Amino acid sequence: MDGAIAADEVQNEADWKVGVDIGGTFIDFCALEARSGRVASLKVLTTPEDPGAELMTGLTLLAEREGFDSARVTRFVHGTTIGINTIIQRKGASLALFTNAGFEDVIELARLRMPDMYSLFCSRPEPLISRDMVFGIPARMRADGSESRAPDMSAVERAVAAAKASGAQGIIVSFLHSWRNPAQEASVKATIARLAPDVFVFTSAEVWPVIREYERSSTAILNGYVHPRVSGYLTALEKRLRSRGVPARPMLTKSNGGLMNAAEGKRSCVNMLLSGTASGVIGASWLARQAGEDKILTLDIGGTSADFALIIGGEAQFGTGELIGEFPLYIPSVSVSSIGVGGGSIASVDAQGVLRVGPESAGSAPGPACYGRGGDRATVTDAMVVCGWLGHSEMAYGQLRIDTGLAQRAVGELAARLGRTIEQTAQAILDIAVSEMFVEVEKLASRAGVDLRDFTLMPFGGGGPMLGAFLARELGMKRVMAPRRPGVVSALGGLVADLRGDFIRTIFSPLSAASLPDIREAFEALAGEGRHWLAAQGHDAAAELNLFCDMRYVGQSYEIEVVLSPQWLADGDMAAIAQAFHLTHQQLYDFHDPDGDIELVNIRLSAIGAGPKLSFPQTDEVNAPANPARQLPVYTGLGVETVDLHDRQTLMPGSTFHGPAVVVQEDTTFAIPAGAQARVDRHLNLLLTFPE
């Protein structure tokens, strides 16, 4: 490993910080020995039949290969896809919903939107709670928070009995206007706990107390749906770490790019649904800042999907309403767009004779055909092998050996149906994969209002470097930056992430001097919650409090997020708040109304406790051409060409070469198309530039 020193020199004083990320095919490890600066990384195939077992395997391999000492771990951060996979696979808990009588259709009506308004065959997803498991409770809270009718507890008793008889494992309580006053939900929850102590209960106000009953109910339902599996997984994780003698309290990556402790994760499950994808973006943001890159488009390709995000000013972008499978999540999350195209995505020929790629994936078991683990259907990875870009070294730190014959056999079956050569079929699979990613990225750029020609593409994940340069070329992007260890960027994200808690109050009032006391009171309350939350996470240093408001012009249906300065509240500077809203509206929609009345809907606060200040070694550049290890034949779409193969370990800072080329390393393979100029920078990033 670069920057390595003998393990026994630091063993007695070792300070290991470990980031772990579980994906659909591999679990990634990034371990930093802080005193020496030595970085150890690893990939291990996942074990879907026993989630978490691969963690123990990885820790054992780190100990054997890198001198890792479990007893010297001072920071352990873990990201997992178990929550989102539970929703996608619909393997969550059986739930009941208690809501106001007369509003039992709230989750079926949703927002009356179709997923694809232009499709005649489009249908909305089946709710996670079926209609017969929704129970109306006579109760009513007014919009101002005063009680119109107290909950009928006899109706609650009957609903609890019916829910249990129907097999409900948990109950979600979501009443109208609980964002203003959660008392009715709390009293019903207490009654349920008394009547059915074996049934878990969540209220919408405790999960995310936001205005609009569908959004609040949907978020609480997602939290409850994954609760048993997430809680059970985290309990097993804690036991496994204790059995290995890991003293550090495990932390979890959150959808908002921050961290929380595992104990909280068992209840606040909804906050970790996008933990893996968010970790990748946070890791990429850190790498971008280290390299001085201001604008980045991230491309994270795993076995199942490709994820895209924008980094602007060195910072990840955030939003609400991210899709979790087929359902929107209304808590702040790192903004990530995903498409079902990954290294394990299966290629097929449909009934009309059209070649398609994904979204079905071979996963880790059986995996792509070339893995030799029982898979026999052609995947994107198999297409890379057939073309010659992949298969020239061991993969995944020696976990896999590529079988070219199996890949050719799988792709050959499709080639026979299409009447093309095996190489042409493999190239078509790659072209389709890139074109599908192209469409998704263009939509992301349009929504954000950015010109991707001003951005640098950062590919990571096991599959990102395989296809990233081809995508950048199609998008007209001029630069690509591949980190030293692209395969474990998500695990790195856990290492460098901060503690981050998000808190909200719905105020729903005009922006005026008369509303200033309410805004100040809400801010102070949220600031207190944030500091208390950080203390509960074990953070005793200074806290960073970031303030946001969701605002809109009076008459608009939906609001926009506006960044505020707490000083404006202290000074009573309402003009500054209004100006910030006008400017944000102008940036998003290219117009604003300086005379329009403004409405403030939510005030939100992010409490941040800074993580460890880490840095990786830098090396002076040598400015010399790189010497290839050997040459190999690759089918580039135009025919078979002879290209150079480079070993990433031998590329020194300042090394230069040009494409077409292949760069092999422990965790991935970098395919570099013709015309690209490559250079290694002092951070060991591999930079590509394309001519004008």
Automatic annotation (TrEMBL):
<protein>
    <submittedName>
        <fullName>Hydantoinase/oxoprolinase family protein</fullName>
    </submittedName>
</protein>
<feature type="domain" description="Hydantoinase/oxoprolinase N-terminal">
    <location>
        <begin position="17"/>
        <end position="193"/>
    </location>
</feature>
<feature type="domain" description="Acetophenone carboxylase-like C-terminal">
    <location>
        <begin position="518"/>
        <end position="683"/>
    </location>
</feature>
<dbReference type="Pfam" id="PF05378">
    <property type="entry name" value="Hydant_A_N"/>
</dbReference>
<feature type="domain" description="Hydantoinase A/oxoprolinase">
    <location>
        <begin position="216"/>
        <end position="500"/>
    </location>
</feature>
<dbReference type="InterPro" id="IPR008040">
    <property type="entry name" value="Hydant_A_N"/>
</dbReference>
<dbReference type="InterPro" id="IPR045079">
    <property type="entry name" value="Oxoprolinase-like"/>
</dbReference>
<dbReference type="InterPro" id="IPR002821">
    <property type="entry name" value="Hydantoinase_A"/>
</dbReference>
<dbReference type="InterPro" id="IPR049517">
    <property type="entry name" value="ACX-like_C"/>
</dbReference>
<dbReference type="Pfam" id="PF01968">
    <property type="entry name" value="Hydantoinase_A"/>
</dbReference>
<dbReference type="Pfam" id="PF19278">
    <property type="entry name" value="Hydant_A_C"/>
</dbReference>
